[in-house]
């Protein structure tokens, strides 16, 4: 039969792999043939662990040693209990992280490793933070494609097969030069020009597809640039807005790699983490969509520097534009329209620019005082 022959050819090709494919052909093919959610009808009930069975969700965070994971784990552990939140990464954790709660090795490109973790720990919620950001992704497209796309496929399948509630962050980077930029609504043209952006649009679409096709409880927020005091971002276009605080405190000088008039949406980490928990806890009937913009403030490097100089008049800011980052920033939203998140599940930010500056300076100067005293 021609259809079967064609199918068997596809299976053989998949089993053997194809040139240039960095994924794990054998595992993926077997999973697709035997266990994939693709074989489950849309009305099938996944073996979801209900909350009557456990008091709290059992949480796994992937990519836990990036900018957001440790803060997210801290917040969730306060609410759900220390042992109910597992932080994971492929890197070795600093001792403070290792001793603050459960930490394990998990490689999102290794499907069996993921499945073992989910099964052995009876995971019910998964926060998928592993990803290469925009600037570092452009410097290593093959790795970004593998982590951000192949890794996401493993996560989606694991989540669907085990009835998990899944959070995947998206970003302002999921938009491109043809999107409306000021403000950018939830639903509009999305033609990003970075591998990071392409992978995040893919994540939004695949998550929504799995939701409609298999009933996966997929939830996704498009984050603005996130500003944090005790963790550093890893290779994004919005990193300057974190670095400026550290350099201001350390040396009183900052060299910015974006033009002074580059306007981007930004948010303080506490708002970002709270929004993440709020959307995960939102009752299903409040969500008309599965992917929402969230916003707090929007500023340019010049505006940030001026506001910072009100507290630190001696701060010197110079500009040396990185053309890769500038081109990325010029294609991104200047401001986010997050009215759907506000209306539907009550999103409200706490930090505007003045509070952000005060909080960052308080934190970093007390850190510096402690370091000097030791
Ligand atoms: N902070 C990210 C980046 O700059 C945007 O989501 O890549």
UniProtKB/TrEMBL annotation:
Cited CDD domains: TDH_SDR_e
One protein family per Pfam: Epimerase
EC number: 1.1.1.103
Domain of life the protein comes from: Eukaryota
Example of a GO MF term: L-threonine 3-dehydrogenase activity
Residues covered by the NAD-dependent epimerase/dehydratase domain: 59-294
Any GO BP: L-threonine catabolic process
Catalytic reaction(s) noted: L-threonine + NAD(+) = (2S)-2-amino-3-oxobutanoate + NADH + H(+)
Pathway participation: Amino-acid degradation; L-threonine degradation via oxydo-reductase pathway; glycine from L-threonine: step 1/2
Family: Belongs to the NAD(P)-dependent epimerase/dehydratase family.
Function, as annotated: Catalyzes the NAD(+)-dependent oxidation of L-threonine to 2-amino-3-ketobutyrate, mediating L-threonine catabolism.
PANTHER family attached to this UniProt entry: L-THREONINE 3-DEHYDROGENASE, L-THREONINE 3-DEHYDROGENASE, MITOCHONDRIAL
Full protein name: L-threonine 3-dehydrogenase, mitochondrial
